[in-house]
Amino acid sequence: MTYVVTEACIKCKYTDCVEVCPVDCFYEGENMLVINPDECIDCGVCEPECPAEAILPDTEDGMEKWASFNRDYASQWPNLTRKLDAPPDADEWKGVADKLDKHFSPNPGKGV
């Protein structure tokens, strides 16, 4: 088992999860984060820290596509090792459904 970030993170990009990760397995895109499932140690400390409830175990139904998505983008985006300020409109995007097709950016973030 590993944990994955889902589309609930898109345009929210809270980074509370990054601060508690003991192995620095988060990677930053322009408007979301992903977890490298090959680096995740399945400790689960990130899941309850996510205000958008975007982090789920890959054993839940439908998470196979998100495990692949996370793996793909973790190999392209820079590693993020510390908490950043959330985007100013993050709370407005929290809970919005179906963000992947219309709002996802494949561009990398800055990483730190």
Automatic annotation (TrEMBL):
Domain 4Fe-4S ferredoxin-type: from-to ranges: 1-30, 31-60
Cofactors (names): [3Fe-4S] cluster; [4Fe-4S] cluster
Family annotation (NCBIfam families): FdxA_Protbact
SUPFAM superfamilies, A to Z: 4Fe-4S ferredoxins
Keyword Transport among record annotations: yes
Membrane-spanning ranges: none
Region (Disordered): 84-112
Organism: Oleomonas cavernae
Function summary: Ferredoxins are iron-sulfur proteins that transfer electrons in a wide variety of metabolic reactions.
UniProt xrefs under Pfam families: DUF3470, Fer4
Gene3D superfamilies xrefs: 3.30.70.20
Protein name: Ferredoxin
Keywords, ordered alphabetically: 3Fe-4S, 4Fe-4S, Electron transport, Iron, Iron-sulfur, Metal-binding, Repeat, Transport
InterPro entries, per database record: 4Fe4S_Fe-S-bd (IPR017896), 4Fe4S_Fe_S_CS (IPR017900), 7Fe_ferredoxin (IPR000813), Fd_C (IPR022569), FdxA (IPR054829), RnfB_subfamily (IPR050294)
Biased composition (Basic and acidic residues): 84-104
Example GO molecular function: 3 iron, 4 sulfur cluster binding
